TrEMBL record:
One protein family per Pfam: adh_short
Keyword field contains NADP: yes
Name this polypeptide is given: Carbonyl reductase [NADPH] 1
One GO MF term: carbonyl reductase (NADPH) activity
Length: 304
């Protein structure tokens, strides 16, 4: 890292969604530690967000809180307006806010709608209102998952359509709505997926990874947009199971928004700072429930 680049950190404005706890909190902490001038810690719940900011201030850091519910269009609009009026634009956007299925092994319509709204459709709202305040050469990182790789699917039609070079937003929306309709109508086929555990979460992250490719084609102005599998992190979402300690989980996200070459665009990245080919179904790097359950049992002694 050059001294000049480090000096420029103080001029940058960064936003991390869903950052009052877990991975988002660690990313905010690490961006502040790197000297990024303004780092927004956002949360749906104002009290929890302010408490998180206070905790970081005790470490000598100074993030800024702003309420943000990514599933509420008016909340996103208000935040975008604030960013425009206060800063003129932002340099870094990390779309981290996400939820997982309530029951890892059961797929219900209500739960699926909630997961898709939080993990996929919210990104379209952010694209509509916050992308216009991205500065030229800004960096966007969509937090995806190994559950977001195309190898999570086995349906030939959707694999072909989603990996097409001519992929469009309409294709992704059709995929998501196909899944929701299948759940609602009871026509879901297990053979269409490599596994059915956390299925709505898989669909949401496959859609997000695909959307990243479309966004990069459309955005222009030197802006880079990538998706990242942050690793199997010990957080509340994973019931404190995983191989990556939360304290280390910010290393890759911060690297990709601050240090990676700006030419890295529209890629599917991993926590070890490598790039994986998202369109290669043969890679078989899908999310595996057997590994999750093994870690769950190791880390939760009372788990049955």
């Amino acid at each position: 890292m050059s001294a000049n680049n480090e000096n420029n950190m103080s001029d940058k404005v960064a936003v991390v969604t869903g950052s009052n706890k877990g991975l988002g909190y660690i990313i905010v902490r690490d961006l502040c530690r790197r000297g990024v001038g303004v780092v927004y810690l956002t949360a749906r719940d104002e009290r929890r967000g302010l408490d998180a900011v206070e905790a970081l201030k005790k470490e000598g850091l100074n993030p800024v809180f702003h309420q943000l519910d990514v599933t509420d269009k008016e909340s996103v609009k208000r935040f975008a307006q604030h960013l425009k009026e206060k800063h003129g634009g932002i340099d870094i956007l990390i779309n981290n806010a996400a939820v997982i299925t309530n029951d890892f092994n059961k797929t219900t319509f209500e739960d699926s709608v909630n997961v898709l709204n939080a993990n996929y459709f919210s990104i379209l709202t952010i694209q509509e209102y916050i992308f216009p305040v991205l500065k030229d050469n800004a960096r966007v990182l969509n937090i995806s998952s190994d559950a977001g790789h195309i190898s999570n699917l086995e349906n030939p039609y959707w694999i072909k359509r989603l990996t097409s070079e001519d992929l469009k937003l309409e294709d992704i929306n059709d995929f998501v709505n196909w899944f929701l309709d299948s759940v609602k109508n009871g026509t879901l086929k297990e053979d269409d997926f490599v596994e059915t555990g956390i299925l709505a979460y898989r669909i949401s992250k496959v859609a997000l990874s695909a959307l990243t490719r479309v966004q990069q084609k459309q955005v222009g102005r030197g802006i880079s947009i990538n998706s990242l599998h942050p690793g199997f992190i010990k957080t509340n979402m994973t019931k404190n199971s995983g191989f990556l300690e939360l304290d280390d989980a910010g290393i890759a996200p911060v690297y990709f928004v601050l240090d990676a070459d700006q030419s890295l665009k529209g890629k599917y990245l991993w926590f070890d700072k490598t790039e994986k080919e998202w369109t290669d179904h043969k890679l078989k790097i899908h999310s595996r429930m057997d590994i999750f359950m093994e870690h769950l049992k190791m880390n939760n002694k009372d788990y049955v």
